Amino acid sequence: MTPKTPLILLPGLICDRALWEPQLADLADIAEMTVGDLTQSDTMAGMAEDVLRIAPERFALAGLSMGGYVSFEIMRRAPERVTRLALLDTSARADKPEQTKERREMIALAKQGKFKGVTPVLLPRWVHRLDEPAIVATVTAMTQRVGGETFIRQQTAIMGRPDSRPGLSRIHCSTLVLFGHEDKGTPPEVNREIAADIPNARLVIVPDCGHLSTLERPEAVNRELRRWLTEQD
Question: Which domain holds residue 202?
């Protein structure tokens, strides 16, 4: 029997393992999966170290959105431990001033006890198919489980993240870059530049899909992740 690939899955902002439930179910025959805990630290460095502490010596790594930011930090710290890399709906850029300003405003709302007001702001940016109640319900429940205190820590970490573009050319493992065509959270151009600058990257665009591709188009994402996990280097 072929041994299963150790695979670390990193969720996005105010997301938890529910973001990866379709993959946890579908890829269990070929991967030994762990969802990283990105709730404890307020820096990218701290999040990366939290993941590396629990990860096996060598592992495949997949991150969506904020999980992609943490993946870049892991690649800076321990590239020799990552056998394969999947970057979903993410960006290698640092925050623009207007993005940081908006994050600070949302943090202020959360500190005022108005965290529930944050999700309606983010939902249209994250979900393209808002007419599908099951997806909206999953995302809403997930963000409420993670909660306002974690939201503040994660937004603080995101605001302080470095520009990862200078290091993209040094990523040499097999890399999948995948994004939803209608992604408003991290639009197509920021995903395309990642694929253009990583030497062994394969770019996949998922049609009729927004930012949370693992939930909106799980069949397409699972197919591409399976190919990524099983293809020869």
Answer: 5-96+153-230
